[in-house]
């Protein structure tokens, strides 16, 4: 089977203004949602207690609420989770009460109210531990970006490194924007997914950049725009197939992974959808506007390889005009 | 051009074989087992225990599948849980309180696999159920405790040198000594500087008063903190032993935190109670007046006189001690083995804090000539370690306990004394509990998402790339095999995010094969011969694969460095998955393609799903 049979190169770069405009709008929207709504951080970050309780019959939320209220925890939220048999209880951090003690009290109250209650999961995190995680998460994000930029700079050229990282950050901000807009819970696994997306999405850019570099060598007569258009068109088949495969896997996780992996798979899905687009249609125009050309990409490499000293520079049409 | 040299084919074959061997244990499942570990740090682990366990099984006619010994203790496997539980009860009854018998699960894989070191993956708490605690050691308290000790020490040192002072007080982590005149201060400065070289001394004046401020220097602070966390970990080890937990994990995390993981524990309330328990050492006076032969005999039968308790000493003889406690282990700041300079016999040197020292001095002054018992309370039972006669008043908080048989015993008892109490208070700052049914659910979910995803990818790849698609899927399956094998070999902890990472690794690994297959198609489209296309396809795709995987690798490594717990688990699998996918996508799939096409002289068409011609 062959889905992509494109004879002529698609003029992606001429849509540059349009794609950039779309990106800019989504990006700004994401930032606005992040600023106004903020992220709904899970206990991993904020500290607090989350308990998942299972009942053999449909849970009576009212009686659960009463049980939790009875030990003076009015600020607790009680809601169904996944199915009507499962209940999720959230408690914020209380100063002066150890996280471990709190869950024990709640458990006792729940069992007293209904002896069939089975506590399936407890996560209690102190506020300080949460703060540290916040810090470490930020550091991880920073070092991943830095590492990727350094590698791309060494392997390609600084213009590509900058373009790729902007495209990547754009993906990350948009994922965060989605989480802010829908107020999905942002927890540790979501952070892991975002960092995985960073690594994954940059794959895309690298594949295209690789082809751009190769084209600069082969297509000596072509303009920068033609070279980039050709590179994107030629790798499009691979881009779509690969993303479909990865998304299939992530989709399977979304379907069968249960509640714990749900947000993880959700973050990956958004990352993959926007990754297809941004790493190609955001990274390339940026690289172009930063002034990528044959000289600064191939020239360097040929000098390093010690081969031809002579660098073929395409004559600028404007020179003829004058 | 598309033939691998023999060594390369053999390399691939050997890798797959190794992958198979180390993956297999995961399929055997686990059988019920019991684990026998020494309950006290003084009980030695040797092959005699193994023989003893086998003897007990023979006597009680308990059928077992195998008994073997490892670094931690003796383990025995059984056919079913009924025998397991009976064996546990029988063993506990026969071995007594010296050993902890815990229920466990052991791999059912055959012995030849185990002798190769092939074990199933180690499952994290979210997959097997259990409880995870992160405990914070209060370092400020450890330092204050140390400072408190110096208050007492200074008073004694100054008195001994006949230096007059107004008062000694502690403020936070510094100790201040107040003097009336500068002369005394200079003398005191010299004395303290000589005896305590690890203190930073500072002189100041407030009004008429001269003050000498002593604070711990950074090196000393660090060593106190290191000591505190080590002792706390040791104490936790002892306490967890009481829970009879198979394979607990107790690890230091960062400078002041301890991670405790108890797989399979369901009674978290009991676990917390035992972890938080204090004082397992007591000093009480021996009741000399009532210790006549008749009373002792009665006492041995359990009838202690009013106001007294009866405990056994190390020889098994009864000792009558008063109910009132002189000192508890809380007052002990340090204990170490030593040698008595006069007799040359082994001793245990115990250091008490200032308050403990004061009490001890008073009690010894009032009870010269009488015996004092040092009791160790372990696992709810009390034992008299030693009951020496007090020869003189003991001040300064340094107590020498003599009567040790040898240096080994002195070392063991010092360890026990130290282990009894926490060096600094601890708080549980993070708690994660996963019920056993939840753990099984999580495993099923992880496995289902991986398998269904894999099946869908396999179908799509084979429809789209036909034979080359089948090769890619085979390479992907081998990738999964190698990844599981490496995880089993490393005994890395597999968590639910780790399972997600396996699924994601498979989704991403197919990228390399897609890149290769697309390249081959492109070469064919450009009119190259099939053999040349295969060659060029693999060669050209390699650069891209390398570049794109290195960037993913960078992300994975950063995740590993900054992640904790489940994120680290995700990162490990992610990074390993990238490495195995590079190997399988490039080397393994090439080897298979070479075997299929490399030996055909006249190759006119490749089965790569191409409909259109160039």
TrEMBL record, chain A:
GO terms for biological process: intracellular protein transmembrane transport; protein targeting; protein transport by the Sec complex. It is found in: Cell inner membrane; Cell membrane. Coiled coil: none annotated. The chain crosses the membrane at residues 12-35, 137-154, 161-182, 188-209, 240-258, 264-290. Residues 106-291 form the Protein export membrane protein SecD/SecF C-terminal domain. Keywords: Cell inner membrane, Cell membrane, Membrane, Protein transport, Translocation, Transmembrane, Transmembrane helix, Transport. Gene3D superfamilies: Multidrug efflux transporter AcrB transmembrane domain. One of its GO terms (cellular component) is plasma membrane. SUPFAM superfamilies: Multidrug efflux transporter AcrB transmembrane domain. It comes from the Bacteria. GO terms for molecular function: protein-transporting ATPase activity. It is a multi-pass membrane protein. NCBIfam families: 2A0604s01 (TIGR00916), transloc_SecF (TIGR00966). Belongs to the SecD/SecF family. SecF subfamily. Part of the Sec protein translocase complex. Interacts with the SecYEG preprotein conducting channel. SecDF uses the proton motive force (PMF) to complete protein translocation after the ATP-dependent function of SecA. Forms a complex with SecD. Part of the essential Sec protein translocation apparatus which comprises SecA, SecYEG and auxiliary proteins SecDF-YajC and YidC. This is Protein-export membrane protein SecF. It comes from Methylotenera versatilis (strain 301).
From TrEMBL, chain B:
It is found in: Cell inner membrane; Cell membrane. Keywords: Cell inner membrane, Cell membrane, Membrane, Protein transport, Translocation, Transmembrane, Transmembrane helix, Transport. Residues 1-103 form the SecD export protein N-terminal TM domain. Residues 229-288 form the Protein translocase subunit SecDF P1 domain. It comes from the Bacteria. GO terms for molecular function: protein-transporting ATPase activity. One of its GO terms (cellular component) is plasma membrane. Pfam families: Sec_GG, SecD-TM1, SecD_1st, SecD_SecF_C, SecDF_P1_head. Signal peptide: none annotated. Residues 310-424 form the SecDF P1 head subdomain domain. The chain crosses the membrane at residues 446-466, 473-492, 573-597. One of its GO terms (biological process) is intracellular protein transmembrane transport. Residues 427-595 form the Protein export membrane protein SecD/SecF C-terminal domain. It is a multi-pass membrane protein. Belongs to the SecD/SecF family. SecD subfamily. NCBIfam families: 2A0604s01, secD. HAMAP family: SecD_B. Part of the Sec protein translocase complex. Interacts with the SecYEG preprotein conducting channel. SecDF uses the proton motive force (PMF) to complete protein translocation after the ATP-dependent function of SecA. Forms a complex with SecF. Part of the essential Sec protein translocation apparatus which comprises SecA, SecYEG and auxiliary proteins SecDF-YajC and YidC. This is Protein translocase subunit SecD. It comes from Methylotenera versatilis (strain 301). The gene is secD.
